[in-house]
User: Fold this.
Amino acid sequence: MKPIYVFGHKNPDTDSVCSAIALAYLKEAQGIHCIPKVIGPINHGTKWALDYFNVPAPSYINDVKVQIKDVKYSKKAFVNENASINDTVNFMRERDLTAVPLVNDQNILTGYITLKELAKYLIGDKRDIIDTNIKHLIKTLNAKIITNYDHDFKGQIQTCPVSSETFIKENTLKKDDIVVVGDRYKILEYAIDSKVELIIMSGNKVLPKQLLDKAIKNRVNVITSSYTSFELCNKLSLANYIKTINKTPHPRTIDINSYYQDFLNLSKKLNYNNYPVINKANECLGVLKLIDSSSFERKKVILVDHNNYEQSVEGLEEAEIIEVFDHHNIGNIGTNTPIYFTCRPVGCTATIIFDCFEKEKINCPKAIAGILLSAVISDTLLFTSPTTTQTDIDLANKMAKIANVDINKYGIEFLKAASSVKNLSVTELINQDFKSYMINNKQYGICQITTMDFDEIAGSIPEIVNKLNEMSQTLYEGVLIFITDIIKQGSYVLYNDNSQSLVESAFELKDIHEGLFVPGLISRKKQMLPAIMKLLD
Assistant:
């Protein structure tokens, strides 16, 4: 069973990461296979909390687009290049294939054969050369071994459509010839004396002892088949290696990890019906038939701490959303079927996740309680944010008891570590907690940076504003940064040049400038975003 991926938003904060880890643990305890992921780099504060409680960081997931590995392709639909033509045709018939990849002994793709190419070969007039082995001959011709000294055979087929005397007179047999004959003993003796590569006797004829002794002495391979000479001539070339008629040594392939949509675009251009599926090592895994390509399994995901496409992983529209756990306003994510959607007006998603542990009566481990507590402290700024509810406070106390930490002592220590911006570039600073919002069909970006020392950032204001202006010229209509000072309980506002009037009107400010301090402005969720949305709406 494929896992369900649990992840938060882009530029993940502590709540986004820790809630994903905790929820994945809870689901696993309920017998639901889940893996926590992140869709962006983990910030310094989150790393500090994970290290403090010795919890591994989730691995990164780039997207949840449908890949070829999610599509219903014919697994192990390939044949070894040394298989017989006869076995290949039977394999294609059994697997309902109109084409099949060829591989070597290491399953590395070496070629590709279609029914069209097979048909050309089977009705062609160049089927008098044999290139095969004893195993294929015995199986294809329903034959038995009389004498056998060689494993592989390569030579020209010689039949006997005339009298023995005429055949012997007009044909000079070579050492690599394959002679098809019945009980015409003069021709048999002539072939044995010529030390041909192989004699195939039709009709299950028996080789007389005198000729058998001579065949053994001359080390001539002899087999006998139940088929008639006419049937043998028709069937013999089917024992050849399939690689002898390989017309496409370098076929157009599809990588197992490539995207389904890219494959659809490619198939429209090439108009092929079958595509060998390979991995990075060029190993063949099977074949994707165009007729089957509409059958695929979407990746299953659970979203935490967000419910907007702009804030989520790339390709989310191609995934199957199973559940959502959030504490923000309802965004623009929609689903085709009903899902569990848990959205509560609390200060942190971690509060909701911990409450799920209690309601499901599943013990929350010390480490999980510790990182959930860190998330609550981060999102509520140690319960000073206007988003804080009594539920956050009550459950955080329970988390602290399980994690065996003092809330205030640990909280201040965590916030100091989380708010440090030393050695961060402007881009890293902006991306710490940056979220995108689609408002009236226009994209807006809002970043919130939490600090205990604004002076660490103040010197970079001109560089930050230049970056905001650059961002507003490409993707965003407006980009705002709120630098929230935990000690002073307010935020410094930075914005791109064209957003000055937006900031003035949304927050009812006058004579504003870059870096203006707004007392009491702490919460993006309850103060910053609602004010901007109200104005724009």
About this structure: The chain has four domains: 4-66+299-419, 69-122+244-292, 143-226, 426-536. The chain has a mean pLDDT of 92. The chain is about 35% helix and 20% strand. The CA atoms of residues 268 and 495 lie 46 Å apart.
